[in-house]
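Whether sequence alone determines local backbone shape is best considered at the level of individual chains. The sequence in question and its structure tokens are set out directly beneath this paragraph.

***
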Amino acid sequence: MAISHNNIDIIKKCPIEERTIGSYPAFLIDPCILPLKKLEQPTVKGFGKYKTVMLSSPQTLPHGHYARLIIAHLTTQISRRPELPSYVIAKSVSELFQQITGQDSISGGTYANFLLSLERVFDTTFTVVPTNKSKDSMRRRGFFAEADNLLNDEYGIGYFNAKYKQVLYTPSNSFKALIADDKSIIPIDLRFLQLARAKDIVLAHDLYLYLIRRGYGREKIGFIPWGTLHKDVFPYLERLALSRFKRRFLFALDFILECHPHSGIRLDKKDKGIVIPPNNYLLRGRGG
């Protein structure tokens, strides 16, 4: 059944009650380095406070809405049934598209773009390296599973097989180990990611994930300056002038707050950055 693309439903209906809570890998959120648009280079690197993350692909890196939705869907499958070695995630790629996007119909061009994104996601490998001063801190904060051999190793999502009237997903051991550790994933409302795709606001995906990441389970109010957001959190936009970055950022933020008016997220009064309250209501419908 397709999930509604209605922002009113997101506001009024709690995702927990609607059973639309999914998961996303924490290591892809801060910094958010999955490209927004097609890049010619086969690698991209982002430097966060606690880690450096690099994506590599033999071809073009996955980008845009589909890549994020696919990764969220695969991560959700693992987090819901971590004991399984593989997952039958659809009867066909067309059905997988409907499940992931919430869209009932699919055109030939759309199908081709989705299939290309699917292949690129599985071609991509991830390298996550802690900074010298924060290796132990990262483990305590739950960015990684406990296995030491996951650090500094290059790993992929796994592989899929779309034959015999089913799409079978087999995650790699390292990716599954990361996702199976519940401290290494972030809960998300899959409806919002689908709605962001329907509205074609790609930056809203990453900003929504980041805001949850910074507010979920925290006890204190957080403040993030513009410079950090521009250069560190969203490094794929660092080439933009700060004024242009802020315009794109605020457009995405306005869309998020339209869907989550009780989140309490706001701009600093002196326009130096954004304020993120603890345990914001991005996962609780009306906020109660």
